[in-house]
């Protein structure tokens, strides 16, 4: 069979590599036939201020360090939403509180990279490659996961990034897709777009091999090609923001429900580099958090019972300095907070050892110290949620051990 490649259509779709043969159709149909575990990774690019996102309102040093941008204590006007008497949510994360109460949201604070860099580019590269301090690593940690599980649940739509370009996290030898809009899905073979002739060429052979299942797989692909997210009807009363991020998560839900074997999905949101006029419960950070939280809340609500088999994890390359700067913003820091959602998550708890914000407890005298390596969070998700028994190949040079897992899953 002639190998085909999916190319960009209006800058909206990219594919690492793909051969359209009956074996591909068989894998797609197989993946669509049952429910498997799913991981949705969300990257907050630009280093979100974890201290104003997951607020340590029980720490007096937090308020001393941030006289104009700290989030007020709970019960104050525009105050933090209390979680456990010490930590609270930024009030613009109110839409996530029901998941905390339902114990399907867990938080890992003082989490991050052991590498000291404050370069956005380097820190993002290290988090996505899964090898802090090493720039020469081939591919991303999620792609290495796909390679390790390649024989189990293959599908053309197994790994999809709702983004303009393939994220470092999904780059590697395993096939993965990047698309900005489902509605602009397209296939090229030579110089021609996919046509009924192309379909007919393969459907007959596929039917011989798969007894009709191949035609159903092609039908699913055509449905995806012409899908209009504007006509998609979310379930359970979910309401997605009209922002690009909200619409990206809406399309992840649409792909999930299409039954195409989606196992790993990725989306990102920038605008977190708040050096100037960051604000507290109002302002640029608060506005970004509002979009972020309402979008995730819509996704989790929309997926409904599917969340029993799904984990959503949020991450950012590093946090912000403890002290606010002279421009009422925050400079590049170190430790940060991650959030993990899912039916299998032991939620309603903030995980990780809190190091404190006193000057002598800070990393290099200025930042929240890291007490949980981000690879231990990713490692626990890969092992205990995705079910990969041997994860050593996922994080080269790092000893993945259950003894270092935060304890997010039973």
What brief labels describe this structure?
disordered N terminus, three-stranded antiparallel sheet, 14% strand, single chain, Alkaline Phosphatase, subunit A, 15 strands, alpha/beta, 2 domains, globular
The CATH first-level class of the largest domain comes to: Alpha Beta
Number of E-type strands: 15
Using only C-alpha atoms, the radius of gyration works out to 22 Å
Fraction of residues in helix: 25-40%
For the biggest sheet, the summary is: 10 strands, mixed
> DSSP helix count?
11
In whole angstroms, how far apart are the ends? 46 Å
Contiguous uncertain segments of 5+ residues: 1-33, 186-199, 209-213
Counting structural domains, the number is 2
What structural category do the secondary elements indicate?
A: alpha/beta
Task: Give the overall pLDDT as a whole number.
Answer: 86
Order of helices and strands: EHEHEHEEHEHHEEEEHHHEHEEEEH
Query: What is the third-level CATH name, the topology of the largest domain?
Result: Alkaline Phosphatase, subunit A
In what range is the share of β-strand residues?
5-15%
Label the CATH architecture of the largest domain: 3-Layer(aba) Sandwich
Description:
- The protein is of the alpha/beta class and 410 residues long.
- It has two domains: 1-33 and 186-226, no CATH class; 35-183 and 240-404, Alkaline Phosphatase, subunit A, CATH 3.40.720.
- It is built from eleven helices and 15 strands.
- Strands 1, 2, 6, 7, 8, 11, 12, 13, 14 and 15 form a ten-stranded mixed β-sheet that branches. A three-stranded antiparallel β-sheet has the order 3-5-4.
- A hairpin with a 5-residue loop joins β4 and β5.
- α1 (22-32) crosses α8, α7 (196-210) packs antiparallel against α8 and α9 packs parallel to α10.
């Amino acid at each position: 069979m002639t190998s085909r490649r999916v190319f960009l259509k209006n800058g909206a779709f990219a594919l690492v590599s793909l051969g359209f043969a009956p074996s591909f159709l068989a894998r797609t149909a197989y993946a669509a036939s049952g429910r498997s575990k799913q991981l949705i990774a969300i990257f907050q690019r630009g280093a979100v201020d974890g201290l104003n996102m997951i607020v340590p309102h029980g720490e007096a040093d937090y308020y001393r360090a941030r006289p104009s941008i700290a989030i007020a204590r709970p019960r104050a006007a525009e105050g933090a939403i209390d979680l456990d008497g010490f930590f609270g949510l930024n009030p613009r994360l109110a839409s996530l509180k029901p998941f905390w109460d339902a114990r399907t949201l867990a938080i890992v604070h003082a989490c991050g990279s052991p590498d000291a860099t404050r370069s956005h580019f380097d820190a993002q590269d290290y988090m996505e490659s899964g090898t802090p301090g090493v720039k020469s690593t081939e591919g991303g940690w999620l792609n290495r996961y796909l390679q390790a599980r390649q024989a189990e649940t293959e599908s053309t739509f197994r790994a999809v990034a709702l983004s303009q370009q393939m994220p470092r996290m999904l780059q590697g030898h395993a096939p993965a897709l990047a698309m900005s809009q489902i509605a602009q899905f397209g296939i090229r073979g030579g110089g021609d777009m996919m046509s009924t002739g192309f379909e007919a060429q393969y459907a007959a052979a596929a039917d011989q091999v798969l007894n009709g299942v191949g035609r159903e797989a092609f039908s699913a692909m055509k449905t995806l090609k012409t899908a209009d997210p504007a006509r998609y009807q979310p379930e359970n009363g979910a309401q997605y923001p009209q922002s690009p991020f909200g619409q990206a998560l809406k399309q992840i839900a649409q792909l999930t429900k299409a039954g195409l074997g989606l196992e790993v999905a990725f989306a990102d949101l920038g605008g977190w580099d708040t050096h100037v006029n960051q604000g507290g419960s109002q302002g640029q950070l608060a506005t970004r958090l509002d979009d972020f939280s309402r979008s995730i809340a819509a996704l989790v609500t929309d997926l409904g019972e599917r969340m029993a088999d799904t984990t959503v994890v949020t991450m950012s390359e590093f946090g912000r300095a403890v002290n606010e700067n002279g421009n009422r913003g925050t400079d590049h820091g170190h430790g940060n907070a991650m959030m993990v959602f899912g039916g299998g998550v032991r939620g309603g708890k903030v995980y990780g050892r809190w190091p404190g914000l006193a000057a002598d407890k800070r990393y290099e005298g200025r930042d929240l110290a890291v007490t949980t390596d981000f690879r231990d969070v990713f490692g626990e998700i890969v092992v205990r949620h995705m079910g990969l028994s041997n994860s050593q190949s996922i994080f080269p040079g790092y000893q993945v051990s259950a003894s270092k897992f935060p304890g997010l899953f039973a």
